[in-house]
DNA sequence: CTGTTAGCGCATTCAA
DNA sequence: TTGAATGCGCTAACAG
């Protein structure tokens, strides 16, 4: 637990020289530098970052607000954020909000109390209950939906879900069920819009009976599969708003002696790693998770650096991933 | 960005009184307290935790070293650690090591440089390449295997894998394949021992051909399934050392026209959430993930508090989870 | 190129 | 019960 003074003493120089040896080595003469480094070695010195950060009034940390970190999609995003942060000398403080405003407030307090310098918000924005944007707090939203009123990097969920539902239509499906996320979730709203648009464009009438409200978990997908299996007139295809619900639905359908894709076609959303290993592998939309995480962190870095951004919305491209869970409609 | 001085001035008291109002309110008179609180409100004061922590020489943060945080098992553990930490006023810094010593060193440096006060290590201990235990660094290992030379909370993996392989034996299986983790991984070693012991006790000769080395990922489980499907004499059951590999193996077997459990029985390990939603649902061993995380954090808290622990090893109980992936052997 | 010095925001002694 | 003063470890401004 030696400090800068101990090093200075040992090296026979001033503490300023020791400090410079770390932050501006080029401003220190060769001999001094060597003396300092030897002394550092000798006394086993490690700069106290708490003191350094305190002095420079920067915590070199950002909090990442994530609704649920057992969700593999967020896991991918967080990893990318983390890597970008580390490269730039920042740490991340993970805050799992579980849709609780109290928890969210708790974590935002970390930046109010200077334990963190900024926030990345991974929950989609909801105007009535969102704490961000917050005056004086640097924040960027990632993976959100339309209508985020501050810097955000996201996908076009309307276009993406249009694309995948349209694919089902192009395979001849007309009666297409949909397992949504929670009704008020902005992602649900955007993706539902894509779904409706694809139907409308194909001249298929929208039928509210064909909507099942899930919550993005496997178990809700399972419930959705059960729901559709009870129909007299079972939909020939189901659009699940994420891969986890797709996996749950596939399981439930099979329990009802309905095979995917022979009896019912299924599509998902996200392209999580396991989507390849379900049976059948899930045809889905890949969200550019890593790119979004990386970009979000880079933007936050700029914001914290006092830079002005010339865009508020950064839209990244989705990708259609064709696998095995869809078959053409056969009469 | 007002500071304690601004509050003191506004309240007409000294900064010492303001400070006390926060840390020892009972040592401040009622009127003073009110004046302070009003002033806090008026100037929008938030204590600067960086300064406070610096002053008290505690970061109130711990780093959690995790091999892979896209692994749902670790996710459960981390969540429990996180909750326990928050309750006690600590934050966690997540460090994904991906089995790289450099990264691990990087994160351990966070405590050497006083950005964190302790470490929880979730990778199993390997004597030749492990940075912990480290002199002067408070650390506890969680979810490890036998032979951790510092405070650890874990399960008995030998007993657990014995139990599940023994279950296969009791169902009449004699030719039992095994998809392991990496050969040198301590968990692989422990679980392999359980496997061998169960076989030995049943008088079944151990056959190295029946071992396939995976790495705990779905894709390696898939490779393992492929491997066993090529046998002339296909094993009637396979013990997969985690659920993810079990899911991959099930998929590969089915691609080879082998159904689980009709043609081959499968068991897993961990009891991840998705083990219920695979088809068939996986019979497995539940690791007490939450309990281990919580306990580990509690122990670390005690260590950081200067307390001596009266045990070095805390062993938690596993649980056998019966589902659908096993059928009796039918000659 | 180097040293002296002030001060970041706070908790904590010591007197009063 | 309160206030004045000190210093945690470091960086940065300034003078030399």
Task: Explain how this protein is built.
Two copies of one chain form a homodimer. By secondary structure, chain A is an alpha/beta fold. Chain A has three domains: 2-55, lambda repressor-like DNA-binding domains (434 Repressor (Amino-terminal Domain), Orthogonal Bundle); 59-155 and 288-317, Rossmann fold, CATH 3.40.50.2300; 157-287, Rossmann fold. In chain A, 42% of the residues lie in helices and 15% in strands. Chain A contains eleven helices and twelve strands. The first copy, chain A, has helices at residues 4-11, 15-23, 30-43, 49-56, 72-87, 101-112, 157-170, 186-201, 218-229, 243-255, 289-304, and strands at residues 61-66, 91-96, 118-121, 139-142, 152-155, 176-180, 211-213, 237-240, 265-267, 284-286, 313-316, 319-321. Chain A has a six-stranded parallel beta sheet, with helices on both faces. Chain A has a four-stranded parallel beta sheet with strand order 7-6-8-9, sandwiched between helices. In chain A, helix 1 packs across helix 3 (30-43). Chain A is elongated. The model of chain A has no long low-confidence stretch (mean pLDDT 95). The structure holds a DNA duplex (16 and 16 nucleotides).
